[in-house]
Amino acid sequence: MIERYQTAEMQALWADQRRFEIWRDVEVAAAEAMAALGIVPEEAAKNIREKAAFEVERVLEIEETVHHDVIAFLTNMAEHIGPDSRWVHLGMTSSDLLDTTLAVQCKEAGELILEELERLRGAVIARAKEHRRSVMIGRSHGVHAEPTTFGLKLLVWADQLARDRRRIREAIQSVAVGQISGPVGTFAHLDPLVEQKVCERLGLGVSAVSTQVIARDRHAEFLGALSLLGAALETMAIEIRHLQRTEVHEVEEPFGKGQKGSSAMPHKKNPILAERLTGMARLLRTNALAGVENIALWHERDISHSSVERVILPDSTTLAHYMLKKAVFLMQGLVVFPERMRRNLESTHGLYHSGAVLLALARNGISREDAYAAVQKVAMRCWEEERSFEALVRDDAEITDWLNAEQLDECFSLERHLGQVDMLFDRVLGEG
After folding, report:
1. The domain that contains 331 carries what CATH number?
2. Looking at the 3D structure of the chain, how many domains does it have?
3. Is 322 exposed, middle or buried (0-12, 13-18, 19+ CB in 10 A)?
4. Rounded to an integer, what is the distance from CA 315 to the centroid of its chain?
5. Which CATH number does the domain housing residue 64 bear?
6. In terms of Cα–Cα distance, which of 120, 121, 125 is closest to 151?
């Protein structure tokens, strides 16, 4: 368990106390469902409901002897219930209890993650609107390409987070199913109505068919959705890290009063949060792979998946929740430097207009190959001589033979790159 990164809510969810509480709820619900069907005496079910209790320390103490967590729990509950405990766990197998409880925990963990995801998407959208027209250079291969806006960069993230929200909702629905079907899933000792009533009370769906366990592709899907969320956060983090580089310096992580960046260099302000998010995304991907490895089990069940899940499900949900909280803090406090963005945009002396000149030449009748060669020749001079690309173009007879002054003015208009910004915001946010 990654305790350092646990939030209080997630820590409580995966603690022994909460796990045993759900175990108790499952057993009580099963006994009451059986009583309603005439399988368990009503008085026994009433007694079980009123007296069902446990102590975490006592369960763990018994487990030291029996080496079986469910038996230890049932033994402790029986100490409270008395003779009617013979009606507890009737016809059930351990995995009925374990997998149904795990479904509740995954559902509750997923809902905590969705709440924080909504906060992050809201923060990203707010900053996107703020910087809707903060012009900056777009980069491909790390090299200046054409202008975009910082708001559009953030809008892409908001759109990706919306897909993560959908995927996580669907994954929760897939993993939030229970089973009360007996040793190999055949209901040999149970009425299927018991399963239905228990799952309804717990807010779960019912696994249509199971062996001794619920199929693990459901859990792999859940872990996969979390890994994709991690990849979205990593996408944001890596971009912020690049933009905070000294040579770029278009954004900065929030840097608190009294914070220090280096033990040796007092001037340092490092993108530590973004780097942390990058590293944690790797853990989510690794855990997702372990989840896939858990799918194939021997026959109706082995327990090779169990020890893995006790690590990867608490850790992945804990990490995702923590990462989202840190990403909200990072996004809300992100320092943006529009003036530096503008200076960087112009640092290549207008080379970002090369594509517009190429297209204008092609529209006027010159072949694309000849147009490309003509513009590239001027662009290389701009690179080498660090002179204005626009001035070099206007002085180049090969180009001005095809384009007049008015056409060249249009080529060098920055506004052409911003004309569809509002449309893109409307597409993603429905602002129209």
Report:
1. 1.20.200.10
2. 3
3. buried
4. 13
5. 1.10.275.10
6. 125
Q: Which domain holds residue 59?
A: 1-90
Give the pLDDT mean for 26-52: 97
Q: How far apart are CA 327 and CA 122, in angstroms?
A: 12
Distance from C-alpha of 161 to C-alpha of 154, rounded to nearest angstrom: 11
The answer to whether residues 248 and 383 belong to one domain is no
Looking at the annotation, which residues are catalytic?
Answer: 141, 262
Same domain, 97 and 45: no
Residue 267: strand pairing partners: none
Q: Is residue 419 situated within a structural domain?
A: no
Residue 52 lies in a domain: yes
pLDDT digits (tens, 9 = 90+) for 67-101: 999 999 999 999 999 999 999 999 999 999 999 99
Say if residue 251 is in the same domain as residue 155: yes
Coil/strand/helix, residue 274: helix
Cα 199 to Cα 194: distance, rounded to the nearest angstrom: 9
H-type helices in 52-93, by residue range?
56-66, 69-81
Query: H-helix or E-strand containing 286?
Result: helix 272-293
SS3 of residue 324 by DSSP: helix
Q: What is the dihedral of CA 387, 392, 394, 399, to 10 degrees?
A: -150
- On whether both 391 and 297 belong to a single domain, the answer is no
Q: Would you give the end-to-end CA distance of the chain in angstroms?
A: 46
**Does the pLDDT at position 158 exceed 70?**
yes
pTM above 0.90, yes or no: yes
Paired tokens of 58: 């006592």
Residue 416 lies in a domain: no
Looking up tokens 């060098």, which residue turns up? 412
Regarding whether 208 and 143 lie in a shared domain, the answer is yes
Amino acid of residue 109: A
Residue 268 has pLDDT above 80, yes or no: yes
Quickly tell me which residue has 């001589």 as its tokens: 385
Residues 276, 376 within the same domain: no
- For 190, what's the count of Cα atoms within 13 Å in the CB-facing half-sphere? 27
Burial (CB count <10 Å: 0-12, 13-18, 19+), residue 255: middle
Is residue 422 domain-resident?
A: no
* Residue 337 shares a structural domain with residue 251: yes
pLDDT band of residue 3 (cuts 50, 70, 90) is low
Q: Name the amino acid, one letter, at 15.
A: A
- Strands (E) in 172-298, as ranges, are 177-178, 205-206, 251-252
Type of residue at 6: Q
The two three-digit tokens of residue 321, written as one number = 């929740």
Same domain for 125 and 250 = yes
